[in-house]
Amino acid sequence: MPEDAQPRKIGTIGATAIGVSAMLGAGVFSAFAPAAQAAGGWLLLSLGVALVVAASNAASTAQLARQHPGAGGVYLYGREQLGEWPGFLAGWGFVIGKTASVAAMAITAAAYLVPEPFARPAALAVLVAVTAAGMLGITRTAAVAAVIGVVVIAGLVGVMIVARVSPPLFGSADGGDADFGVHGVLQGAGILFFAFAGYARVATLSEEVRTPRRTVPRAMLMSFLIVSALLAALGWTLLSTLGPGRLALTPAPIAALVETQPAAAAAIGVLAAVSSVGALSAVLAGSSRTAMAMGRRRDLPQQLARQHSATAVPRVAVLAVAAGAALLICLGDIREVIGFSSAGVLVYYLVANLSALTQLREHRSVPRTVSVLGALGCVALVVTLPPLALVSALGVFLVGVVARLTARTRRA
């Protein structure tokens, strides 16, 4: 289907639902424990740092979306504002980061559904099922996202109420080997950034929403505000109820909040699985759209740009992202996968902030200092991520750069 003939069926509410669903995924259920290992009792400060960086990124990205309402998000913005190579780095960072996010969400869903020996096969089964659903088109993704977003928000609010009325059996415990200094706070913020990054999903929908210049920025900011308020309340509840020591040592901290209520604990398992599947669906769609945009411009193989004639879904791109996620499920650990994902996405937002700094006055809606703060925050969080995740991400970035240089040389 030609670029200018794609159906535009999603409004502000539907796009906001997709953003909320993408953010309320595996990060809510899996990121708080490793972040507490890094930051200890300073967890809320880490959450605040992550929130400020994410808010700056959201403002810069929304500003760019008004000027460039096309598919591809910051990949497109970087190309238009900075040039081909910055755009490529943004797009490649988004694709690899969100591929890791897809894997993390599938692993989280499986962890709440089946015992450990069956977790990886179950995660692969979840990935296959969601990939098949994503082939059916964007309208089904939006409808599912709206339902899941409402259910997850209601469930998490209920958990926080139960935790205050009937606290868990065990509170704070000694544990964690983190350096609770500036480095620990920044590393915790980098891990928690994983829970905020889903609003970028909205920026990739520009070709599939009505009036994208207005709808995309509104939906992005609305989804960010909704989830930020919920994460702040949830972080405070976890820290004040479990304490930093037990929180750092608990693989399922939200379930631990209601451990005195077996029925509620079982419901949390289902809620976590549903939330992860919903976010997986949204993120898989977003990363495949970016791969599609890169395929159109030959930064990735052109086959990724092919779209189904009836649904406009880039099926080759969807399958490629799913294959990468399947490899990570088979080889990766959840904490390494989260760190890898954050590294890729933070590079993506670094390009977004740098792109926003080059916009002319008539296209600006936020002060330049916001974009400067976002860029500096992205760099600070990237360099303090766990070393293995950072080195792995740098290696994959290098592979992408070499592959692009090789392809350009052959075409020349």
Account of the protein in words:
By secondary structure, the chain is mainly α. It has a single domain (3-411), classed as Up-down Bundle (Amino acid/polyamine transporter I), CATH 1.20.1740. Helix content is 75%, strand content 0%. It has 17 helices and no strands. The chain has helices spanning 12-23, 26-30, 32-39, 43-67, 74-81, 84-113, 119-134, 138-165, 182-196, 200-203, 212-249, 253-256, 262-296, 315-331, 334-357, 368-383, 387-411. Helix 7 runs antiparallel to helix 14 (315-331) and helix 13 (262-296) crosses helix 14. The protein starts with 11 loop residues before the first helix and ends with a helix. Residues 1-6 and 174-179 have low confidence and may be disordered.
Topology (SSEs and partners):
Blueprint: H1 12-23, H2 26-30, H3 32-39, H4 43-67, H5 74-81, H6 84-113, H7 119-134, H8 138-165, H9 182-196, H10 200-203, H11 212-249, H12 253-256, H13 262-296, H14 315-331, H15 334-357, H16 368-383, H17 387-411
In short:
With 412 residues, the protein is mainly alpha-helical. It has helices at 12-23, 26-30, 32-39, 43-67, 74-81, 84-113, 119-134, 138-165, 182-196, 200-203, 212-249, 253-256, 262-296, 315-331, 334-357, 368-383, 387-411.
Mean pLDDT: 84
Low confidence ranges: 1-6, 174-179
Count of separate DSSP helical elements: 17
Which oligomerization state do the chains in this entry correspond to?
single chain
List descriptors:
412 residues, mainly alpha, Amino acid/polyamine transporter I, 75% helix, 0% strand, disordered N terminus
